């Protein structure tokens, strides 16, 4: 998925300076931004004060949208470097194409995982014959320095491991939760899980004390560690917990994200995650020149041109502002 803002601001993130050693309850405000033709998303990460959760560096939540008589998601070919994209749906379908030749329809509770590495381009669209409702999240994972120039790849995992308990079930998207391990490739200690709670369920979910966590509410109302969350909201939880208490007010769905705090400092601009402004400028130039990223074939439309670079130097700093 692309950041389609016309004038994207550089995001300076990473490092451990802003990571609390103990639990916190920090509600992150969403920004409404456009995504392709007629679709808007709630951008929850990066936010003004919180840049990352573990290696998770980007979170968009969209829908549920009625697209019965609409084209739905239409995101033209665009480039990525230095990250992984995670497509996660609760409703609808997304057709993925990339410059490796991948062609895959991703459906609800299936993992579409693209490792950009040194360079890749892709497009995402609702198929011509699609479900009436589109609802999901798009997430990015920053790659550590040792792996950020790796060869690009795309993975699709339709059968993911699950966990369950009284009034509760979960699907492990990435990493491990309560002994269940996702087949998705990871490069840092990280986890992501989709959680479903029945009305009135009270759950104490085991988590890693050394990980920092955040919860994205996909649907319904859930109280997480004493904080009441409406759909489309995100709560940053910090580190230092051995379990996470949750209580559902009606049936609800959440995505739990966590990981070891990302020690390296990054600069993120448009669809690129790098270490210096010069790397960002090089990637932008290569994309506009038709070099390095390859060609996405089969999408009915032109690639997205890169926005102009900001007039100030891009420098990597800490994870909060």
Automatic annotation (TrEMBL):
<feature type="domain" description="Pirin C-terminal">
    <location>
        <begin position="193"/>
        <end position="292"/>
    </location>
</feature>
<protein>
    <submittedName>
        <fullName>Pirin family protein</fullName>
    </submittedName>
</protein>
<dbReference type="InterPro" id="IPR011051">
    <property type="entry name" value="RmlC_Cupin_sf"/>
</dbReference>
<feature type="domain" description="Pirin N-terminal">
    <location>
        <begin position="43"/>
        <end position="141"/>
    </location>
</feature>
<comment type="similarity">
    <text>Belongs to the pirin family.</text>
</comment>
<dbReference type="InterPro" id="IPR008778">
    <property type="entry name" value="Pirin_C_dom"/>
</dbReference>
<dbReference type="Pfam" id="PF02678">
    <property type="entry name" value="Pirin"/>
</dbReference>
<dbReference type="InterPro" id="IPR012093">
    <property type="entry name" value="Pirin"/>
</dbReference>
<dbReference type="InterPro" id="IPR003829">
    <property type="entry name" value="Pirin_N_dom"/>
</dbReference>
<dbReference type="Pfam" id="PF05726">
    <property type="entry name" value="Pirin_C"/>
</dbReference>
<dbReference type="InterPro" id="IPR014710">
    <property type="entry name" value="RmlC-like_jellyroll"/>
</dbReference>
């Amino acid at each position: 998925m692309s950041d389609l803002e016309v004038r994207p601001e550089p995001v300076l993130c990473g490092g451990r300076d802003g990571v609390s050693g103990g639990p916190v309850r920090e509600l992150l405000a969403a920004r409404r931004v456009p995504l392709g033709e007629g679709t808007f998303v709630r951008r929850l990460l990066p936010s003004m004060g919180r840049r990352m959760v573990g290696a998770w560096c980007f979170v968009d939540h969209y829908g549920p949208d009625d697209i019965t008589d609409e084209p739905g998601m239409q995101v033209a070919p665009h480039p990525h470097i230095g990250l992984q994209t995670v497509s996660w749906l609760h409703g609808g379908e997304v057709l993925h194409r990339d410059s490796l030749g991948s062609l895959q329809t991703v459906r609800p509770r299936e993992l579409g995982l693209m490792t950009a590495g040194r360079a890749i381009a892709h497009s995402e669209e609702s198929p011509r014959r699609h479900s009436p409702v589109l609802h999901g999240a798009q997430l990015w994972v920053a790659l550590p320095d040792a792996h950020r120039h790796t060869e690009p790849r795309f993975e699709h995992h339709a059968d993911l491991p699950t966990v369950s308990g009284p009034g509760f079930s979960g699907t492990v998207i990435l990493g491990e939760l309560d002994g269940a391990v996702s087949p998705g490739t990871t490069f840092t200690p990280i986890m992501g899980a989709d959680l479903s709670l029945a009305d009135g369920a009270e759950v104490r979910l085991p988590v890693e004390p050394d990980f920092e966590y955040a919860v994205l509410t996909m649907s319904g109302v859930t109280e997480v560690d004493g904080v009441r969350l409406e759909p489309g909201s995100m709560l940053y939880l910090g580190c230092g917990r051995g379990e996470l208490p949750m209580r559902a007010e009606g049936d609800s769905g959440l995505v739990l994200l966590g990981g070891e705090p990302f020690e390296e400092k990054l600069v993120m601009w448009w669809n690129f995650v790098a270490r210096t402004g010069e790397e960002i400028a090089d990637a932008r130039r290569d994309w506009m020149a038709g070099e390095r990223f390859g060609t996405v074939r089969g999408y009915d439309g032109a690639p997205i041109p890169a926005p102009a670079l900001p007039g100030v130097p891009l420098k990597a700093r800490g994870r909060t502002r």
